[in-house]
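Troubleshooting: if your tokenizer reports a length mismatch, compare against these two reference records.
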Amino acid sequence: MTTAPHRAAPVGREELLGRLERALHARGRALLTGPAGVGKTELALAEAGRAEARGETVLWLAPLPSDRDIPGAAAAALVASVAATVTSTGPGPAAPAPGILASGVFDELPGPQRTAVAMLCREAPIDAGGWDPIALRLGIARILRALTCHGPVLLVVDGVQHVDADSADLLRFALHLAPPALRVVSVETPEPYGEAYEPYREPYRSEDPHATHLWVPSEADVLLVPPLAADEIAELLIHHRLPSRMAGRIHRASGGNPRLALAVGRSLADARTPVHHAEALTLSGRARDLARQLLGAAPAPVRETLLLAALALRPSATLVRRAGRPNAEADLAAAERAGLVSLAEDGSVRFTAGLLPSTLVHDACWAERSAGHAALAEVVDDPVEAVRHRALATDCPDEELAAEVAAAADLARRRGNSALAAELALLAAESTPGRHGGRRLTRLVDAAEEAARAARADLAMRAATDLLARDAVPADRVRARLAVLDTAGQGLTGLDEMYVHAMEDSEGNTALRAAVQLRLAVKYVLADGDPERSRTAAVESAALAASMGDPRTAAQALTVQARMERALGSPDAEAVLAQARALELAERPLGIRNAAQILTIRHALFDGRLAEARDELGALLPLVQRRGSVEDAIELLSTLAEIESRIGPCGAALAHAGQSLALTLEAGLSPGPAWYALALAETAGGSFARAASYARRSVQASEEEGDRVFLSRSRYALGRVQLINGDVAAALETLRRVQADERAQSNVDPSMLRWHEELAEALLAQDAADEALALLAEVRPVAERLGRSTVLLGCDRAYALCLAAEGRTDEAAELLTRTADSFGRTGLPLERGRALIALARVERRRRRRSAAQSALQTAAEVFERAGAAPWLALAGETPAAGAGDGPGSASGVEDALPALSSLTEGELRLARLVCQGASNQEAAAKLYLSVKTVEARLTRIYQKLDVRSRAQLATALRP
């Protein structure tokens, strides 16, 4: 028993921690229950940390499994901990006590009670009749009551299922008499299996269902700790500095169990394995050991039933029973109580964590797996599944069987089950006899390409590895490598060797060289951040494809070229895109990701033609959701969320971005792009705090993947929300990195990522007005040359703020009024509202309160119609509220004294820090300025406000 350390709320448990505190406040008792590893102890530690922060005494009792067989073990440990707590918290240094009862808390115990407690703690010999149970009960109760005399006490019993029966009886009595100042948290991991498990009977249960509980729990104080959602697993991985790009797969493997998820994440980090090997790696090391521990508690009959369920594609109680497990329902019900599976009303079975069926299959011997597949092949009602089971039941290659499996793969593809089609295509290749070498190689190529269509990187790598180890022709080797590259997603940095070999093998094959150059064009921009080189590769790919009469590859290459032309500020971008679109319309490609059609929509987004872009996406999305690939759906949903984040409805933006993330995590793809979309959606219609969190996650995932494009985008999203929140120093640092990234990548077109106006505003807020004006002067001619009208409007808003900082408030107000009106006519309500908030700030500086209030009211109406909740709250902050210095926020200080209107945002921020007691050095550190700059700025502040000391400054700033 020890004092718990201070802990913050565990990832994803803020709401549950609040429920725990409410239960303790209302009843003084709370029971945390759930499967092993789900995070119950972490939650209890967080509550203990909060109690300690309030000055409460915390007692932590963690009985071991062996304690359950020792009468009084837990009660004795509690007494010992009370003694240690009293001794350590007493006045002066604590002297080592010769025994537990030497502690002062026991001095007031009557003789019989003291003797009974001494016997319990083995500090007195146990009489022949044992300790006096009544005296011991009263003694324990008196000890706990005396402990609360010094203040509130929180008792945490971590592992209440290990408390022995005698201790449970003693503690129940003591807690029944305890005052309200003693609150208790019990942590329980249910034990569903008994030693006397019998398939036809309910699992072992004590006659008293509350035998080991310290009170009779009710619905009000029992809190089930659920598994984490996929997004929370991603946050958990980031918190532990583990790779987050695999969050979706890790969530599936762990079922949301934090302990399992961290074990899998650490396996990935320790092995430093490429993304393609991740599926196999989840079975290794500590992760597999944890899965075995969970499965090992199940009786042998239950494990045998679970193995059949693990082998089936669509397991159900009926299917498993027909396959030879007559007690399937009882076995599966027991497994459900253990948290291993969940059973639906129709009897279908779902394992709670993907590691569990994988471990069952991996640890079973070949004979067990073969017998299971053979049994399932006889009872499944789907011919595709039957063929799969028959193929997996034999280890003898058979051409007739391989042909059946290949036909089943075609059927699965036509049904739209791309994942099953990919698995069957590889199984067909592996079932092909060695004497049919050429046919096996053909099927391996087909399997790799089928895996690429299904985004199954692990299967693509398996097929390619098998093929590359054989005597395959160069064309087949290229096709297999291209399939692997197509499943790499954003993570292309570790695949240089794959590109080199593909180039070598495509020598002399124009069609394949075009395909390789196309992949290189994508790599050059994503992984290398080199749009010039990407454009060159795309141009070559398009020319090669056109010479071979391959319109599909030519259209894709021209699309990449058009994207690079736009980024580089070339006027040819639209003409190239039109060529790609014409080829694409004639070819009717299967997918739309990276296609000219979607790039046309994104160009409309960049140009501010948002209603047009939304309408085109709205017509395309249902078709893609019915027949397209997962990556196509993700691309459309993210783009739609980006559009709605600018024009509304912002609630729809949140929904579409959330769907994009869910699909991303389910498919095991990098979550960086989806988190970026969510950051934009949260900034528009959710929460600025959540937006910053998603943007930070996107930054980390993009860095892990080496994705230069989305690294810039996610940093832009982060810097923007930091600026909105008023964290100007952090925003300036982040946006400067965006500036460096974009310039390093030679990106010229300012409409593709509108960071310039945000950086200018951040510079202005840090009193770097000259630098802000220089930046605006640099970007404006480019935007005018390219016709980027909405970029020019953003520059106008930032320039108006520069005018206001120079004291030219009349010009600033006039420019902001025109800018807001222009944003409204362009169909950009959120930008209009932001300009109106800036106008309100300028009007306050002009001491035109009515005009300022009118601008804020109009902004609020604009935000309300668009569903922009956080912006609506920002516009609703009245001057008296003193909302802070953030761009768009209302400042109560500015209205407290007219003279304050002469201060810039940076000067106001410094003045507040100084008035809060910060020294010049401390203020310089917080504002990222030099001490000399702080001294000079303070001098200007004193002159403007006509004050001569910090005390007078504080008086001037007081509303």
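Reference record two:
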Amino acid sequence: MFLKAKRSRAVAAGLAALAMLATACGGSSTSAGGDGTLVVYTGQSGDWQLNFNPFSPTALEGPGTIFEPLFFYNNIRDVEPRPRLGKAFTWNADGTQLDIELRDDAKWTDGQAFTADDVVFTLDMITKNAAMNGTGYKGAATAVDSTHVSIKFAEPSFMEGPQILGRIWMVPKHKWSGLATPATDVVKEPVGTGPFQLDEFKPQAFTLKANPTYYAGEPALKKVRYLALSGNQSGEAALKAGQIDWQTGPVPDIKNVEKNYPGYKAITIPMNQAALFTCSNAALGCQGPQTDVAVRKAIYHGINRTQVNQLAFENTASEISPGAALLERDSDQVSAKLKERTAPMQADEAKATALLEGAGYTKGGDGIYQKDGKPLALTLKVVAGWTDYITAVETMSQQLQKVGIKITPQQVSWNEWSDARGRGQYELLIDALHQGPAPDPFYNASYFYSTATTAKVGEIANPNFARVSDPAIDGALAALKGIDPKDDAKRQPHFDVIQTRIEELVPYIPILTAGTTSEYNAKKFTGWPTKDDLYAFPAVWARPEHSEIFLKLKPAS
């Protein structure tokens, strides 16, 4: 199989890259954290491209670490948000006004004070630049004084709170007001309020250093170094050699990390929903067979998820709902009106072929369906080096061959994959649906299924990459914004609409709920999240969750 054939070369390449990094970063020792530096690997395959614009889909880092939100929301546990740049907030009775009190001791790393003007500027900026508005924010903000902001909404907007407060990164007005196109401008020298700031940048690695003037005190963790390697196998090799301290991704024999990697521990949390993303909406410019819902449903039923879990994910993944709510965390809100509460774990080839034939496809002599003289053939993009996803893609392509669908996996760089995803210039790609700032299925739906967060093909969508635009979903999302989030009885009918429409449209073809696993150096650093103390979702690429973890970590004595 491909991965076995390439394994030795990939590992050798990864170790060679690490050897070069040791020299590039100014030392002969490659021991992780040897100087108190936390060395992390996010899965970056290929060189880093310098860009710290936190609103860019190709931003390499910044949200949470350099640029802060107003509050930190724990999206695993239902707990009160922790203040960051904000101190307190209140809603009026009908949810049309949000008043925020800010810190008075925060400064940008160039020494200027952080004020309410920066908050208003940031919020106004994203309303003028749709590609930056990943939360669908529609408020009108006013600075009452230097530490108070009032945001008014045209309609009740309770659900906007965690998104505005926890998922919008504050930027300095005195720096960003001069950017001509802030949605796409490259930020090379970031100025933020966060606990870290840029230390040095090289294409193979960049380093953040503790902010000595951080309002909460300089972090105990002094440096974080981000490596670029050649993929998961290189990451695993580096972990085995003790050359990285934290990565989120698969390793062989994942259940025995402590035995196989002395000094390291692992934690697995089911949060992100692995899916085949489809550019689904022909009205917005999507092209290809995947714009036909019958094809998307045939793929959905043609996947043997049990086999994918075994071969690609070491059985660490779990079932997934076709309505996109998390089965474990959101169990009370999973709609009873779904045709299937969970996606089938076994392929149903008869159902898949019946869907295709009902939509006018006929099978050719080569066993592949065709329509209007065109074979049912699709290209599926995957990031080179993401070995678990590569295995999943190859496994599914073989499975779908049996139902007359030809899938051609295409390994590309992360930058190419990310650009294609953002612009809708793909047929299929593999990725995961991330969760919102609070433990509520509303946010996942508002991100990936709202007309407000998508765009025409060629323009940047953020993050409705499938180009979903459905009046019923939009209406239900709008209604949920005006309902107190504690009123379950009033909310559920709208969740029923959203989930049943998602199941019907299947723009992101559900694979499995990924068991997101992180391996971390417990010998050299203390303060890591545990299942008993999940103060933040423990994934190195999760933003701003990773910044909360950085703030908790301390070098072990």
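Descriptive notes for reference record two:
- Confidence is low (pLDDT under 50) at residues 1-31.
- DSSP finds 15 helices and 21 strands in the chain.
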